[in-house]
Amino acid sequence: DQQVKQNSPSLSVQEGRISILNCDYTNSMFDYFLWYKKYPAEGPTFLISISSIKDKNEDGRFTVFLNKSAKHLSLHIVPSQPGDSAVYFCAASGRGSTLGRLYFGRGTQLTVWP
Amino acid sequence: SQTIHQWPATLVQPVGSPLSLECTVEGTSNPNLYWYRQAAGRGLQLLFYSVGIGQISSEVPQNLSASRPQDRQFILSSKKLLLSDSGFYLCAWSGGRWGRPLNTEAFFGQGTRLTVV
Fold first, then answer.
1. Alpha-carbon gap, residue A104 to B29, rounded angstroms
2. Which residues contact A53 (CB under 8 A, 6 or more apart)?
3. A6: which chain B residues are within 8 Å (Cβ-Cβ)?
4. How far from chain centre, in Å, is Cα A62?
5. What is the least distance, in Å, from the CA of B97 to any CA of chain A?
6. Is residue A93 classed as helix, strand or coil in its secondary structure?
7. pLDDT tens, position by position, B58-98
8. Fewer CB within 10 A of the end CB, N or C, for chain A?
9. Residues from chain B contacting residue A93 (CB–CB below 8 Å)
10. Dihedrals phi, psi of B92, to nearest 5 degrees
């Protein structure tokens, strides 16, 4: 049972435009959310996170938005650059039975073209 | 600073052979340790996680096992590999204790590409 879902397997965006990657979750015990970026044959690298006490967190070109009522979060990249092309994973952790674990979505392949 | 080492980087093993992948973390103590697998075209699947020496939780029943003989060492094993065990295996660590840290970013190793033939 996939508790963290990324329903778009791929996204193609022109350089300079905004990239919006979406993520949904089902477990109400999740209270901390993360985005990771992964290149082929490498481990994922941490990008940005957000706690459930916030609805927005910004770091340079990257902004994560959290809508708790909808159990939805999104990652915005503005402006998009070709070097942003990678697979992006959404992840979540929380309290109770999910304590200490990170649950990942299946990832979205972002391609930024010139 | 903290670093995580995972080896080997690639491995080709015949069906039925044993497996041992090792992961070590430096620069921190009492980390949470994880083994993930990314099968072809799939996302990251949590296989095992550990909050302390000898404490292993399994997420999915499978042909694999994990052990944590030392605080910063995590081992993934199999007695007999199956074709379906092929994939990209990732070790990761995160800080904090069972009491719930605020930041739970997990940091990943470079991964092991396992091909079972």
1. 25
2. none
3. 43
4. 10
5. 8
6. strand
7. 887 678 999 999 999 999 999 999 999 999 999 998 875 44
8. N
9. 104
10. -145, 160
CB-based contact A49 B105, cutoff 8 Å: yes
- The vertex-B96 CA angle with B92 and B98, nearest 5°, equals 100
pLDDT digits (tens, 9 = 90+) for A3-32: 999 999 999 999 999 999 999 999 998 988
Contacts 24+ apart (CB under 8 A), B46-51: B46/A101, B46/A102, B46/A103, B46/A104, B47/B76, B48/B76, B49/A100, B49/A101, B50/B74, B51/A100, B51/B97, B51/B98
Report in angstroms the alpha-carbon separations of A114 from A80, A82, A85: 10, 7, 11
Q: Tokens in use for B42?
A: 């799939």
List B65's β-bridge partners, or say none: B77
A44 contact B CB<8A: yes
Say how far apart CA B50 and CA B20 lie, in whole Å.
17
User: Quick one: CA torsion of B3, A38, A92, A68, rounded to 10 degrees?
Assistant: 140
Residues in chain B: 117
